[in-house]
Automatic annotation (TrEMBL):
One of its GO terms (molecular function) is hydrolase activity, acting on acid halide bonds, in C-halide compounds. It comes from Paracoccus tibetensis. This is 2-haloacid dehalogenase. Gene3D superfamilies: 1.10.150.750, HAD superfamily/HAD-like. Keywords: Hydrolase. The lineage of its organism: Bacteria, Pseudomonadati, Pseudomonadota, Alphaproteobacteria, Rhodobacterales. It comes from the Bacteria.
Length: 221
């Protein structure tokens, strides 16, 4: 029998939204680095952003600032705070991956959607408005006081919706930000959207789809 969750929760940036931190970094630094050096810079920037959210909560502008500063130091490039500010200000302008609106809208007709997002309250409405589907609940890291992969972010979702892990199907393209923590908290129904961010890891128990066009089928739609 197909599982029918009370809620379909999902990661926003990277999974649904085309989170173009790589493009933003290239715009500012490609003329200072070799192609190989640029790819290393992008990987470093991603790694430092993850490390920054593992600490106590701070505004996402500080996450970007600190991660970029550390990346520049590692790559022997001068750090300019104005570049970090520009990259942060681009976030609300980014829209969905092309496969998202149709697939998400199909699911939204049958299940309430929950965005569990490492976002700030002032920025995320701009991204949500571009998804092309009604989102019943938007739960941010700012409101939770914690970024994923902290358990507190997921616990905030459980408490806010008065539900437990058994009531959710959680959808993400990231093991490190979402699916590992979801597994540890007992969310047994998970979908990994394989966008090439990370390698497969079957230990964590999920249904794999290539993009959001496959999500309705997972739910028997």
């Amino acid at each position: 029998m197909t599982f029918r969750p009370k809620f379909v929760s999902f990661d926003c940036h990277g999974t649904m939204i085309y989170f173009d931190m790589a493009g933003a970094a290239r715009d500012h630094y490609a003329d200072q680095l070799s192609p190989e050096g640029m790819e290393a810079f992008i990987e470093n920037f991603s790694a430092y952003r993850l490390d920054e959210v593992l600490h106590d909560f701070k505004p996402y502008a500080e996450v970007v600032h600190n991660a970029l500063q550390r990346t520049c130091k590692r790559n022997n490039i001068a750090f300019d705070p104005a570049v970090a500010e520009d990259i942060y200000n681009r976030v609300p302008t980014w829209g969905p991956n092309p496969d998202v609106p149709a697939g998400l809208a199909r699911v939204a007709k049958e299940f309430p959607l929950v965005a569990l997002t490492n976002s700030m309250n002032a920025q995320i409405p701009h991204n949500i408005a571009k998804l092309g589907a009604p989102i019943a609940h938007v739960l941010t890291a700012e409101s939770a006081g914690a970024y994923k992969p902290h358990m507190r972010a997921f616990e905030y979702m459980f408490d806010t919706l008065n539900c437990g892990p058994e009531d959710f199907l959680h959808v993400s393209s990231s093991f490190r930000y979402d699916l590992m923590t979801a597994h540890d908290l007992g969310i047994t129904n998970k979908v990994w959207v394989n966008r090439g961010h990370e390698p497969a890891n079957p230990y964590y128990g999920y249904t794999e789809i290539a993009d959001i066009s496959g999500l309705p089928g997972v739910l028997g739609l």
